[in-house]
């Protein structure tokens, strides 16, 4: 009985994370502008929350890239 299953292309995940980063960035900017124009501290606070979400996605994106680096003489684990 052969063991076979399909693998997802790792770069397709990078694209999805990148889209999520940019979506959060646009939402953050829109909430800051909306919060300033309407005088809503709640919108500005939520924008800062979305900014922290975006920062964590950037870290995840960088970690995905680092995890796929090939091994070399100095770092045999990749």
Automatic annotation (TrEMBL):
Domain Cation efflux protein transmembrane, chain residue ranges per copy: 19-78
Classification via InterPro entries: Cation_efflux_TM, Cation_efflux_TMD_sf, CDF/SLC30A
Transmembrane segments: 21-45
Gene3D superfamilies for this protein: Cation efflux protein transmembrane domain
Compartments reported by the entry: Membrane
UniProt GO MF annotations: zinc ion transmembrane transporter activity
Membrane-related topology note: Multi-pass membrane protein
Transmembrane found in the keyword field: yes
Keywords: Ion transport, Membrane, Transmembrane, Transmembrane helix, Transport, Zinc, Zinc transport
GO CC terms, sorted: plasma membrane
Main localisation: membrane
Protein name: Cation diffusion facilitator family transporter
Organism whose genome encodes this protein: Nitratireductor basaltis
């Amino acid at each position: 009985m052969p063991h076979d299953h399909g693998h997802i292309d790792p770069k397709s995940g990078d694209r999805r994370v990148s889209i999520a980063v940019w979506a959060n960035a646009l939402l953050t900017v829109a909430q800051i502008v909306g919060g300033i124009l309407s005088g809503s501290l709640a919108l500005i606070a939520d924008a800062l929350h979305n900014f922290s979400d975006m920062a964590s996605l950037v870290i995840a994106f960088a970690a995905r890239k680092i995890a796929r680096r090939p091994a070399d003489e100095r770092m045999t684990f990749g």
